[in-house]
């Protein structure tokens, strides 16, 4: 596969790793980003991995476009055929399905001819790859939801969906990291904070890793929510 | 030591604290925000002896009224919104002394729409994810994540000794016009557009509509047609990116843009021309001119040199 390079104005460069969304492309981007971090090229300010691209923002007073492009090409040549240095993690997101904070669970079940328990079993029986972060702070774009529970967006979007709400939109699933309006079918709620600007680590998740929803009871949910409030909760994660 | 500097008598239309933006967190979806006109912000800071990336007040169209609580030195740069101190017009692009009890006010917008008020020593604000910039949508940064309100007290950081009367060379003071040409680098999705669309884009006048804000400028003009689709697989979007949704009307992405987007982008406005756009009012006419990355970076360096030379003199 050949990488292509495109200027993003005069302070950015975009690397295109492929034309379709795939786990392989995503891992490739993750590997490149990890090497880029280790390389510490002067003038690079930050980068943003996405489904098929890695966008790098830089300061032309430190490094010009051509010089940067050449450095990136060399870096890419060196990692050809490499594998990701660090193992991917699977973050466990405790989720209380249904109830008052997951009111669309019944609709998702009915739409797919399943019981609510089957929807929960399918939704929580899967590791979802975090392809990218974006849209709003801390929001993960997840891939890998089984079609068996795919459900169209609500006809009337809700004016307010609480942060932590777990939803389905067509064949996508996700968690709201910030309270916002939205049309997703809300099937549950996670007590963890994906985005907390006050915290040392303001963003909980990062792209290239995986996420798994773990079904918890209302009382477990309440206990975790309490620990989160007290600043004592630490998310479980394990190597993939 | 934090000390009260200004009391807000009138907040103005939209007055927020902004620095050079929240960089380093875009990969987590955190919006950059920051000053719309980064040139004016940097000059305003340097004239009062601050680091160029310190936070200042970004004033929009109708400025605030601030009562001075303690003698200090300020500078007002950017759009000319008729600044006055105690009823008397004051010069812009210059450091000026203000005294306890005086009122800093604004009048008619004469040229441009955004002014920056810097204060010697900087404002005392929490640094959230590396920046003091306000991002209103996520209620993040600045003064409790919001715009100024009546009766707010604004605090200064450390006391510094700065000389009033320092000014920017007139050659380096920009003009803000009602009709502007901004230079762009084509792409990255220029191949998604028809040949006619590219010609139209580079030869037509587009009007900035009233639906324009810190997030994006929606333009109105000849339709830009896609070959097949207006959508792309979501990717990072740069400052100045010009996205074109299916209706063919371009939107220029500004300081508060989302970090990622799924619309084709025909071009990106070069960094050196972003302040021109930042100062353009709704109703202003924009034309686009293609240049190469190399030329754009030469222009970038020329501008950077003005700022860095001033920096060396001042700091």
UniProtKB/TrEMBL annotation, chain A:
Family annotation (Gene3D superfamilies): 3.30.1360.40, Cyclophilin-like
InterPro entries tied to this protein: CT_C_D, Cyclophilin-like_dom_sf, PxpB
SMART domains: AHS1
Keyword Hydrolase: yes
One Gene Ontology MF term: ATP binding
UniProt KW keywords: ATP-binding, Hydrolase, Nucleotide-binding
Transmembrane region(s): none
Statement: the UniProt record of this protein carries the keyword Lipoprotein: no
Domain Carboxyltransferase: 3-205
Protein name: Sensor histidine kinase inhibitor, KipI family
From TrEMBL, chain B:
Species this protein is from: Terribacillus aidingensis
Coiled-coil region list: none
Pfam families: CT_A_B (PF02626)
Signal peptide: none
Top-level division of the source organism's lineage: Bacteria
SUPFAM superfamilies: Cyclophilin-like
Protein name per its UniProtKB record: Antagonist of KipI
Start and end residues of each Carboxyltransferase domain: 27-306
Keyword Nucleotide-binding in record: yes
Keywords: ATP-binding, Hydrolase, Nucleotide-binding
InterPro entries on file: CT_A_B, Cyclophilin-like_dom_sf, PxpC
SMART domains xrefs: AHS2 (SM00797)
A GO molecular-function annotation: ATP binding
């Amino acid at each position: 596969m050949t990488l292509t390079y495109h200027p993003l104005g005069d302070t950015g460069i975009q690397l295109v790793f492929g034309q379709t969304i795939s786990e392989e492309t995503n891992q490739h981007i993750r590997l490149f980003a990890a090497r880029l971090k280790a390389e510490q090229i002067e003038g690079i300010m930050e980068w943003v991995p996405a489904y098929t691209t890695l966008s790098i923002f830089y300061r032309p007073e430190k490094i010009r476009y051509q010089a940067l492009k050449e450095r990136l090409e060399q870096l890419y040549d060196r990692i050809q055929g490499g594998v990701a240095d660090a193992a991917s993690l699977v973050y466990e997101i405790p989720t209380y399905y249904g109830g008052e904070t997951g009111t669309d669970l019944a609709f998702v079940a009915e739409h797919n001819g399943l019981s609510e328990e089957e929807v929960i079993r399918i939704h929580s029986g899967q590791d979802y790859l975090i392809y990218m972060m974006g849209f709003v702070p801390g929001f993960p774009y997840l891939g890998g939801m089984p079609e068996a529970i795919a459900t169209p967006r609500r006809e009337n979007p809700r004016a307010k969906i609480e942060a932590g709400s777990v939803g389905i939109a067509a064949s996508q699933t996700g968690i709201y990291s910030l309270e916002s309006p939205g049309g997703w079918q809300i099937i549950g709620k996670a007590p963890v904070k994906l985005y907390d600007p006050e915290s040392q680590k303001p963003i909980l998740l990062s792209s290239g890793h995986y996420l798994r929803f773990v079904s918890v009871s209302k009382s477990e949910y309440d206990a975790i929510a309490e620990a989160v409030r007290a600043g004592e909760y630490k998310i479980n994660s394990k190597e993939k | 030591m934090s000390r009260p500097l200004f009391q807000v008598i009138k907040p103005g239309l939209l007055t927020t604290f902004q620095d050079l933006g929240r960089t380093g967190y875009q990969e987590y979806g955190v919006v950059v925000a920051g000053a719309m006109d980064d040139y004016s912000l940097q000059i305003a800071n340097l004239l009062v002896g601050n680091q160029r990336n310190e936070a200042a007040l970004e004033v929009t169209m109708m400025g605030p009224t601030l009562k001075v609580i303690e003698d200090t030195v300020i500078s007002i740069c950017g759009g000319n919104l008729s600044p006055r101190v105690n009823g008397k017009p004051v010069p812009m692009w210059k450091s000026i002394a203000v005294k306890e009890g005086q009122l800093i006010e604004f009048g008619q917008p004469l040229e441009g729409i955004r002014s920056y008020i810097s204060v010697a020593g900087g404002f005392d604000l929490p640094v959230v994810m590396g920046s003091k910039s306000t991002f209103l949508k996520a209620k993040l940064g600045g003064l409790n994540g919001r715009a100024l309100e009546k009766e707010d007290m604004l605090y200064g950081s450390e006391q510094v000794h700065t000389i009033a009367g320092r000014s920017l060379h007139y050659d380096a003071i920009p003009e803000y016009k009602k009709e502007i040409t901004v230079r762009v680098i084509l792409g990255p999705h220029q191949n998604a557009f028809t040949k006619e669309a590219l010609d139209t884009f580079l030869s037509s006048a587009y009007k900035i509509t009233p639906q324009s804000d810190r997030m994006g400028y929606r333009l109105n003009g000849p339709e830009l047609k896609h070959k097949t689709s207006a959508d792309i697989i979501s990717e990072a979007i740069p400052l100045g990116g010009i996205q074109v949704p299916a209706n063919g009307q371009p939107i220029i992405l500004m300081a508060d843009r989302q970090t990622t987007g799924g619309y084709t982008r025909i071009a990106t406005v070069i960094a050196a021309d972003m302040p021109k756009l930042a100062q353009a009012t709704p109703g202003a006419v924009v034309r686009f001119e293609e240049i190469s990355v190399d030329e754009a970076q030469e222009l970038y360096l020329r501008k950077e040199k003005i700022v860095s030379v001033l920096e060396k003199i001042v700091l």
